[in-house]
Amino acid sequence: MRHLRLVSTPPKEIEMAKTATTKLVRTDTPGVYKRGKKYTYVYCVEGRQKRGTAATLSAARKAKRQAEADADRGLIFATEDIKFGDYARNWIDTYRRRCNERLCGGVE
Q1: What element of type H or E holds 81?
Q2: Which of 103, 102, 86 is nearest to 94 (CA)?
Q3: What is the pTM of this model?
Q4: Burial level of 39, CB count in 10 A (0-12/13-18/19+)?
Q5: Where are the alpha helices (DSSP H) in 2-106?
Q6: Domain locations in the chain as residue ranges
Q7: What is the pLDDT of residues 77-95, one digit of tens each?
Q8: What does the alpha-carbon distance between residue 55 and residue 38 come to, in Å, rounded to a whole number?
Q9: What are the tens digits of pLDDT across the range 1-26?
Q10: Contact (Cβ atoms closer than 8 angstroms) between residue 71 and residue 43
Q11: Do 78 and 46 contact (CB within 8 A), yes or no?
Q12: What is the sign, positive or negative, of the torsion defined by CA atoms of 74, 80, 82, 85?
């Protein structure tokens, strides 16, 4: 008995979708790159590299500075290895510290 093997080939008039492999182009700011029409910024949290995007160069610079400052203050941390209970306790402690008595009414 002969076995036939089916091979799928797209019709010639249909083009295959191209993958989004837009290259990163360096800017004057370290850690900020242009990618297509948007800007990508790179920062580190607990030794791991993280990325973010912004519409403009100035917005990317500002977001990068903010992300680095938040990471230094401990407001951004790697969540891959943390359990939910630990995350929730950390969030409550952070919120309690940042919450103004007048706005929150003394959340304890």
Answers
A1: none
A2: 86
A3: 0.58
A4: buried
A5: 57-73, 84-98, 101-104
A6: 25-99
A7: 776 778 888 888 888 887 7
A8: 5
A9: 666 666 666 666 656 555 556 789 99
A10: yes
A11: yes
A12: positive
